[in-house]
Amino acid sequence: xxxxxxxxxxxxxxxxxxxxxxxxxxxxxxxxxxxxxxxxxxxxxxxxxxxxxxxxxxxxxxxxxxxxxxxxxxxxxxxxxxxxxxxxxxxxxxxxxxxxxxxxxxxxxxx
Length: 111
Prior knowledge:
Shape: globular
CATH class of the domain at 16-91: Mainly Alpha
Protein name: Winged helix-turn-helix transcriptional regulator
Strand content: 5-15%
GO biological process, one term: response to cadmium ion
Oligomer: single chain
Helix content: 55-70%
Low-confidence stretches: none
Structural class: mainly alpha
CATH topology of the domain at 16-91: Arc Repressor Mutant, subunit A
Largest sheet: 2 strands, antiparallel
InterPro entries: ArsR-like_HTH, HTH_ArsR_DNA-bd_dom, HTH_Metal-responsive_Reg, WH-like_DNA-bd_sf, WH_DNA-bd_sf
CATH architecture of the domain at 16-91: Orthogonal Bundle
GO molecular function, one term: DNA binding
Number of strands: 2
Mean pLDDT: 88
Strand order of the largest sheet: 1-2
């Protein structure tokens, strides 16, 4: 793999992760799945969202290649698609960032 190819591949992967983390519900799903696989209904209940919202967000995360669905009889459970993602999320959680409460709250974000 050439450096240019690796850069394009890495950029695309990080962009997908950034997209996933840009939504609080998707972020919460990834953090929950970092702990253990789960059924969508259990995730919906734990995060206080409807099952339809959970279904839509899991579809997005699946499309980004971050989670995978595992058939289990008539039900399906979800887990992180790559175990390294759990480590990456742990590393991100260890970052200490100053968060300006007035930044990035609306459409006119200028940060």
